[in-house]
Specification:
27% helix; 10 strands; alpha+beta; rod-shaped; 192 residues; 4 helices
Amino acid sequence: MSVRSVTTRLAVRPPALALSVLALWGGHAAWDATAKDVALSVDGKVQQVRTHGSTVADVLRTAHVKVGAHDLLAPAPDVVVTPQTEVVLRRGRLMALTVDGTSREVWVTAMSVSEALQQVGLRADGAVLSADRSRAIPLKGFSLEVRTRKAVALLDGGRVRRVASNGLTVGDVLAEQHVVVRRTDQLAPAAT
């Protein structure tokens, strides 16, 4: 091997190496240019997701976000996204709701007690709630007791008084109105 061939091979390596790095960098830059940033809002917290995917499902997969059976997602998973698309996910929350002594479980995507009452269609004007209306509903679920306001006609001593009450029983209404029931009084319906 001559000194000249070794010198020629060594002289060729740096330009070839530089060309390889440049091609690799250019390929990565071209691939990166095909990505798009899409806004993803999960329960009101917005993040930008950089994705090469084309659908909402791809955005969620890139962000490592799973959608549950009771969650609300808009737009639908198969919708094609653009950089102007905002994907909104509201997590489902199980709420144990008791209204005037009757209990049921409901799924809501609401983030506050007030919003949950609207979602279940409960008009709670004048109602007594076991939690503040602005209280956040955690993902793990929540229990809420509601006592609605009722119009009651109270016949006391021959006079009808119309009152509003959040009581669950006749006894509750009488106690709120400071009515004392004596042994000689007739009470209908029963106090309990």
